[in-house]
Write a structure and sequence with these properties.
Blueprint (H helix, E strand, L loop, with lengths): L39 E7 L7 E13 L2 E20 L11 H6 L11 E27 L2 E14 L22 E2 L6 E10 L7 H8 L2 E10 L3 E2 L15 H4 L3 E2 L11 H6 L7 E2 L14 E2 L3 E13 L7 E9 L30 E9 L1
Parallel strand pairs: 1-4
Antiparallel strand pairs: 2-3, 3-4, 4-5, 5-6, 5-7, 7-8, 8-13, 9-12, 10-11, 13-14, 14-15
């Protein structure tokens, strides 16, 4: 890096364009008559009536102790209001008398606040979210050789998207946050988890071989099964022509058919076309598309991690021993596929191109003294 030739007071002294254009050509502080170049780009302005986010939570739980295990059933709910979100207050109004290319070429001229502002984003307290869930869990505490805990959750989470404070494109359609209301990006409709630790019994009848070789092992495992995450389809083109810098990434296609395909298809067929790609078409010019946000759900997830542990005492007591661990991640090598390509303009639209880790085996030997 070459330091500027000037000093801290004027670091751009002696530097002229086109080598480097000083970023602040006006005197500091500028005079009251200094003109402001238009159009102005205004971000993260505080909107009127900004409020602190509010969350209300409630639950109802019933528990019962059975011989050997405990059962718990619970309903959980939450509502959030006044969440921070950014609204584009200077969209470009679509002109039906112009072609799509002509509308795109005249974005600034069609903007609401032209010629004064190119962007005008207000931070508003307009976001909402809700969560409702039913959870069932069963627990067997340390008693004898087996300990386990399992649970099932059936839930639904709704919001209007990620509320990034200061984001230019928090919402797809200007002044209409409810247009983006749909499943949360992290919503998992159903999820089952189960974990256990089991100490295998020793075979005392075979002496040292039965006690220390066949017996004395501990087995543990974690089973996870859940629905896939929701995802949104995007057109991949700026058909809305509203001037939002992120319009290419937020325009959604129009739904003209049933996007769901039979669930009994082969894995190969699902990888090549996870959903019915013919059921959507590019959104009409001047619109944002009629498909909902996160209205499709990706492939589910199933995984079993398994471990075998053997602790071999070396001498009397437990101050010296040798621990052996054999761990199997994704024991059955079940393929957990990623979400399909969701951009209509891509040649791989609707195809699944990624997957999670295969089976991983890890062996460890540890000497404790």
């Amino acid at each position: 890096m070459v330091p500027p030739p000037g000093n801290l007071t004027n670091p751009y002294a002696g530097v002229t364009a086109p080598a480097i254009t000083p970023p602040f050509p006006y005197p500091s502080p500028p005079s009251p008559n200094t003109p402001i170049p238009e159009p102005v780009s205004a971000f993260a302005l505080m909107g009127p009536g900004l409020k602190a986010p509010t969350t209300q939570e409630w639950n109802l739980t019933a528990e019962h102790q059975f011989p050997g295990f405990a059962l718990r059933v619970a309903y959980e709910g939450a509502e959030s209001y006044h969440l921070y979100g950014s609204e584009d207050n200077n969209p470009s109004i679509y002109n039906p008398n112009l072609t799509l290319d002509q509308n795109i070429a005249t974005t600034q001229a069609r903007s609401v606040l032209n010629p004064y502002y190119s962007t005008f984003t207000l931070q508003q307290s307009v976001g909402t979210s809700s969560y409702n869930g039913l959870t069932i869990s069963v627990l067997r505490q340390v008693k004898g050789a087996l300990t386990f805990i399992g649970g099932y959750r059936w839930s639904r989470c709704l919001d209007e998207g990620g509320y990034v404070f200061g984001d230019e494109a928090a919402y797809t359609r200007p002044w209409d946050p409810p247009y983006d209301r749909g499943l949360c990006d992290y919503d998992v409709g159903s999820k089952l988890t189960f974990s256990y630790v089991y100490k295998l019994p020793s075979v005392k009848s075979l002496g040292f071989f039965g006690r220390q070789v066949i017996g004395g092992w501990t087995s543990s495992g974690i089973l996870t099964w859940q629905d896939g995450l929701p995802f949104t389809l995007f057109t991949g083109t700026n058909n809305s022509t509203d001037g939002n810098n992120y319009s290419v990434a937020t325009d959604r296609p129009d739904l003209v058919g049933n996007p769901h395909l039979p669930s009994n298809r082969s894995t190969g067929e699902k990888l090549l076309e996870y959903f019915n790609t013919a059921a959507v078409v590019p959104n009409a010019a001047g619109t944002y598309g009629n498909t909902a946000r996160n209205f499709l759900r990706g492939p589910g997830y199933a995984n079993l991690d398994f471990a075998l542990i053997k602790s071999i005492p070396l001498g009397r007591g437990e101050d010296r021993r040798l621990d052996f661990r054999a761990e199997f991640f994704n024991l059955f090598n079940h393929p957990n596929f990623g979400a399909p390509d969701n951009y209509l303009t891509d040649s791989t639209f609707g195809q699944i191109l990624s997957a999670g880790d295969p089976r991983i085996v890890q062996l460890a030997l540890k000497f404790i003294f």
